[in-house]
Amino acid sequence: MEEVDVVVIGAGFAGLAAAERLAAADKRFVVLEASDRVGGRARTDYRLGDGVPLELGAQMVHGRTAVTHSWIARAGLQTRPLPVTQRSRIIVGRRVASYPWLALPFHPVAGTRAIYDGFVRLPRQIDAAQPPDRSVEEFLAERPVHPVARLIVSNLYAHVYAADPDAIGVMGAAEEYRQAREPYGFRNFRLVEGYSALVDRVAARLGGRIRRSCAVTDVQVTPSGVRVRAAGSDGSPTEYHAKGVVVTVPLGVLKSGTIVFDPPLPKEKQTAIERIAFGDVYALQLRVRNGTMRRRLRDFALVWGGTASAFYRPRVGLKEGTEFVTAFTTGREARRRMGFSDEELVSATVAEWNEVVPNDATLGSVEGMAVHRWPTDPWVRGGYSFLPPGVGLADRRALAAPVGGRLFFAGEATDVAGQSGTVPGAIDTGTRAVEECLAALRKDGM
């Protein structure tokens, strides 16, 4: 049995943030990561584009004030602005609508009012929503809404929360928005070198304190501390004894019950685990050529057409010969397609594109693809958390609450500052959980 001060379970951004703070506090600790890699739901592919970073998990840095920027700067990496909304293309009946920066008297597809309602007025109404709680879909059904405005709002919330509009609660979304430091989604940045480059640099500082392929199976609280049992990829057992444990695994893993807590977690925490929902999402990266989409849609960043996928160009604004398109698919359709083969997944995605765009805006031939199936990854089991109707920040607080001065919880699902589902939400909660742990250790005279 290895004796340490703290065991951190999970090496995503929450776990890495926890480890960085423990290292600064000069504590003895280990980070136990079930998979063979570090980074959690941040994963970059460099093979499809011959070294070009293409994100399979976390896509962007949302906002100018996100703590992620300081991590990127400290690692010596760079970001560039990504004009997602500004270069969006909303397509209705195969007609293309661009985001109107000027107050045009008439928008050629939907009218300026419908575009304004979708991007501004209706989200503001949701952000100010009052009880009773209901789904985003029910909220839209209560009022006369132009079809284009409905399309924009439905896509916006589906992709923010990795769920279908009929599953997302209005009151929970409003609560989270009121806690956020800046509006979500209108100032986006791309990590130039890719999220995995950032993860690798942070992990290098932590060295051998990260144990990969070490899946925790049991967490037992005893009078003298916490006993943590784990299994290697070959089934070989390892055991650790610590004064405190920081749990940072995704909500999907907590829901699965693959980690057994003894004694069982308090009823309030178990209820929060059940009530907070975990959405489904994946990002399919396609390398294409000989298409006509750029001639028809110009240098676009995003195409929304009312289907389960939004289509991004991760290299927007760069004059490159090779084209890449990201199909970001959410909700029940993302879960359904996880049973597809790679070829079937590409075929379904190309068919979805062709269903939406004008006939003269083709993707072209697909030369290659890359994807990570997050909903069926046993160490994730979904995308990221969201609040369904009837569930609010009180549930996130219950999920985040320490247990007995020994167990501490972090991860985007525990965020109560309006950053759930994001990298900065994971980072901030990892730091918060360790501060709680350190306070408990000081109380114990450690």
What layout of secondary structure does this protein have?
Layout: E1 2-3, E2 6-9, H1 13-24, E3 29-32, E4 44-49, E5 52-55, E6 61-62, H2 68-74, E7 79-82, E8 88-92, E9 95-98, H3 112-127, H4 136-141, H5 147-161, H6 170-179, E10 188-191, H7 195-206, E11 210-211, E12 214-222, E13 225-232, E14 237-242, E15 244-247, H8 251-256, E16 260-262, H9 267-275, E17 277-278, E18 281-289, H10 293-297, E19 302-304, E20 309-312, E21 323-330, H11 331-337, H12 342-356, E22 365-370, E23 385-386, H13 393-400, E24 407-409, H14 423-443
Parallel strand pairs: 1-14, 2-3, 2-15, 3-11, 8-19, 12-16, 15-24
Antiparallel strand pairs: 4-5, 6-10, 7-10, 8-9, 12-13, 13-14, 17-23, 18-21, 18-22, 19-20, 20-21
Write up this protein.
Helix content is 33%, strand content 24%. It is built from 14 helices and 24 strands. The strands form 6 sheets. Strands 9-8-19-20-21-18-22 form a 7-stranded mixed β-sheet, sandwiched between helices. The protein has a 5-stranded mixed β-sheet with strand order 1-14-13-12-16, with no helix packed on it. It is globular. The two termini are 20 Å apart. Among the domains are: 2-41 and 196-277 and 381-443, FAD/NAD(P)-binding domain, CATH 3.50.50.60; 88-179, no CATH class. With 446 residues, it is α/β, with parallel strands linked by helices. Helix 1 (13-24) packs parallel to helix 14 (423-443). Strand 12 (214-222) and strand 13 (225-232) form a beta hairpin.
